[in-house]
Specification:
alpha/beta, 60s Ribosomal Protein L30, Chain: A, about 30% helix, globular
């Protein structure tokens, strides 16, 4: 029986790439990390020389010059309320021109069209995304919070428990899995970051196996022409808002929120003369969004900025103002006398943060607007 491979692919070869393989029954046979493409090739030659399906967590088909792909928009529509929206990929980012995943697929002769039948000596390569995969496969109310923050260890423990519950993986028989679990239980400084990609790759390998053996568990968001992401079908189960950053309690976080929109916007928000351009980008990103009524909403913004602009000296309030101003269409009608903007009367909680853009990540922001559930 052929192997199924998961690759949590770093956007550039100086960073760690997670690798994992499962056999025809879905059991984990190997996992590890590599960096350069030649190291990935060596690992594949040793552990999975002729895989049936390869599932890659990285942009694979990126034809658009700017903005987000249709796939990311569709994933956002299905999963943003669970906190699992996708960051936009476009050719304006040098790391996606061309995407590293596309280059690897060409190197190994993998078919990147999801309509390609599995087998007959051909390897099918798919783009996948762990966050919505976990939400969809396990009916989680929100994404697993293991990527960053002060509660990473708890998030890793949850992730490990979810993976261990997948009977086909047979992780209890894997010596390497025992080492990963021990690391999660007692991590030294930097340990969680070092194993993150490998754990993601194990999930990706399971998705590759599912694509062949249980195709109804997955669906294609997008097209081979415009780019696509493979993830579970749009969920209908109950969802919860992710906890407020830095442990703050949201006084408006009542039961039964109604609508959440999460969008990734590329561009710079910190240039005084560039605010109009930034507002236009935000406006376009939320062009299909509207929160009805006049009840309270919360707005969460995470800015991704160059190293200089991300310094503490750059006040967050100067970054937030133009962003919030561009959200009036999302928040509905203005005040009755039309002199007061909707955001001035509806935004009951505002959370903002900023981080430096590293490893080729584009500048921009992830903006989430959530109805407080007032329903008025």
């Amino acid at each position: 029986m052929g192997a199924y491979v998961g690759i949590d692919l770093a956007w550039k070869d100086s960073n760690r790439t997670g690798l994992a393989a499962v056999d025809g029954f879905g059991a984990l046979t190997a996992s590890g990390v590599a960096r350069a493409d030649s190291e990935i090739a060596g690992w594949l030659e040793e552990h999975a020389p002729a895989p049936m399906v390869v599932a890659v967590d990285a942009p694979l088909i990126v034809p658009n010059a700017a903005g987000q792909r249709v796939a990311e928009k569709l994933i956002g529509q299905a999963y943003s309320r669970y906190g699992a929206a996708a960051y936009p990929a476009n050719r304006g980012n040098p790391l996606f021109n061309p995407p590293r995943a596309e280059t690897l697929a060409q190197r190994f002769g993998w078919e990147i069209d999801p309509a390609t039948p599995v087998g007959n000596g051909r390897t099918v390569c798919l783009e996948v995304y762990p966050h919505p995969a976990l939400v969809g496969l396990f009916a989680l109310p929100q994404r697993v919070l293991y990527k960053k923050g002060t509660a990473r260890q708890a998030g890793f423990q949850q992730l490990a428990e979810l993976l261990a519950s997948i009977s086909e993986l047979r992780l209890e028989e894997s010596r390497r899995w025992a080492e990963l679990v021990a690391t999660i239980a007692h991590p030294a400084r930097g340990d969680l970051t070092r194993i993150e990609d490998e754990l993601d790759a194990i999930l990706c390998a399971h998705l590759a196996w599912l694509w062949h053996h249980r195709p109804e568990a997955l669906t294609v968001y997008g097209t081979v022409q415009d780019g696509y992401i493979v993830a579970p079908p749009k969920p209908a189960h109950a969802w919860e808002r992710c906890p407020a950053p830095r442990g703050r309690v949201d006084p408006h976080d009542t039961a039964g929120p109604v609508v959440t929109y999460s969008r990734s916007v590329t561009g710079r928000a910190d240039l005084g003369l560039g605010h109009t351009d930034w507002q236009n980008r935000v406006h376009r990103a939320f062009g299909d969004c509207s929160i009805p009524g006049r009840g309270p909403v919360s707005v969460d913004v995470e800015f991704v900025m160059d190293e200089t602009a991300a310094q503490p000296a750059i006040a967050l309030h100067s970054l937030v103002a133009a962003t919030i101003d561009a959200l009036d269409d999302v928040l509905g009608a203005r005040d009755e006398d039309r002199r007061v903007a909707a955001h001035a009367t509806r935004v009951a909680r505002l959370s903002a943060s900023k981080r430096a853009a590293r490893d080729g990540t584009q500048e921009g922001a992830v903006i989430t607007v959530t109805d407080g559930g007032d329903g008025s």
